[in-house]
Amino acid sequence: MRLAVLSGKGGTGKTTVSASLALALDSCQYIDCDVEEPNGAIFLKPELQERYEVKVPVPEVDPAKCNGCGNCARACQFHALAVIKDKALLFAEICHHCGACQLSCPTGAIHEADRVIGVVEADARGSFLHGRLNIGEPVSIPIIRELKRRVQNGLPVILDCPPGASCSVVQAIGGCDYCILVTEPTPFGLHDLKIAVALVKKMKLPGGVIINKAMNNQQMIQEFCQENGIEVLLETPFSREIAENYSRGILPVQADPAWISRLQEVYSQVERSVKK
Ligand code: SF4
Ligand code: SF4
Questions:
Q1: Is 76's C-beta closer than 6 angstroms to any atom of ligand 1?
Q2: Whose CA is closest to atom 2 on ligand 2?
Q3: Do 254 and 188 lie in a common domain?
Q4: Are 16 and 95 in a shared domain?
Q5: Residue 129 lies in a domain
Q6: Is residue 62 part of a domain?
Q7: Nearest-5° angle of CA 47, CA 52, CA 55?
Q8: Is 160 in the same domain as 269?
Q9: 202 in helix, strand or coil?
Q10: Secondary structure, 3-state, 92-124
Q11: What spacing in Å lies between the alpha carbon of 70 and ligand 1's midpoint?
Q12: Is 270:3 a contact under the CB 8 Å cutoff?
């Protein structure tokens, strides 16, 4: 089963939940798709032994063949190309690697060259993987795609997704069997949860909610879930002890064995929902 853990916004406890689940299960594959800020390794402490560069094709212009027609700049929806004084200039940092400029060039002046945008790192068995996007790179999808190419069949797979509801999240949750949406009981949390729920529904994926940092104020989230037929899988309390442990890199499942059975029950509940 492929299980995506996501949240409408950062800082809700998405990594706490996904890394805790990984520790609570006997055997699983944990994939940190939050490639702009992967921090699952801080908690799971894997021995990273494999490293692969992730490359994307970017256009290069041969000035000798360029006639300055401007077709490439007009074809580029991302304004990554400009033609100034009959010369095509590329701003590689904002190129989205779509290849439209090459197709539009009448003189064959554009060819593609590989550019490294980040890495995928894994432990020896491939049971822990994460990606890292190089600073300044705008497009994380190729790294998430590379991570997902390494999904192992036959065991639970936990995908710690990027925050938000952008195209990188769409890439991460695509093909998953279930989405766990982690939220916090605040008006901001509810606002972003609604966006995440809309995304998951649009992609026709089943999902449930974990309410993190609950402080007897979770009613608004509970009501929203009830109105929308979404199961609440778990409520975790707002706790100074949990926060202090977290700041030392210690997850609730490592500090208190009761959390192991709670998270195992969450996984069983998800399994039952997926089977239904
Ligand atoms: S590959 Fe696509 S995004 Fe990049 S410069 Fe060409 S048209 Fe623009
Ligand atoms: S489309 Fe080709 S020939 Fe025209 S400006 Fe761009 S690179 Fe030059």
A1: yes
A2: 105
A3: yes
A4: no
A5: no
A6: yes
A7: 150
A8: yes
A9: helix
A10: HHHCCCCCHHHHHCCCCCEEEEEEEEEEEEEEC
A11: 13
A12: yes
Q: Which atom of ligand 2 is nearest to the CA of 86?
A: 5
Domain span at residue 245 reads 2-28+155-275
Structural domain includes residue 8: yes
The pLDDT confidence band at residue 246, using thresholds 50, 70 and 90, is confident
pLDDT band, residue 36 (cuts 50/70/90): very high
- Examine the domain organization and report whether 86 and 193 are in the same domain: no
Number of domains forming the structure of the chain: 2
Do 93 and 169 lie in one domain? The reply is no
Residues 216 and 166 in one domain: yes
Ligand 1 proximity of 81 Cβ (cutoff 6 Å): yes
Residue list, ligand 2 pocket, CB within 6 Å: 61, 66-72, 83, 88, 104-105, 107, 109-110
Tokens of 89: 């200039």
The verdict on the CB of residue 33 being under 6 Å from ligand 1 is no
Cross-strand bridge partners of residue 214: 237
* Cβ(97) – ligand 1 distance below 6 Å: yes
Q: What is the pTM (predicted TM-score) of this model?
A: 0.89
Asked whether residue 162 falls in the same domain as residue 210, the answer is yes
Q: 23 by DSSP, 3-state: which?
A: helix
Average pLDDT over residues 128-139: 93
The predicted pLDDT at position 211 comes to 94
pLDDT of residue 100: 97
The pLDDT-based confidence of 266 (bands split at 50, 70, 90) is very high
- 164 alpha carbon – ligand 1 mean position (Å): 25
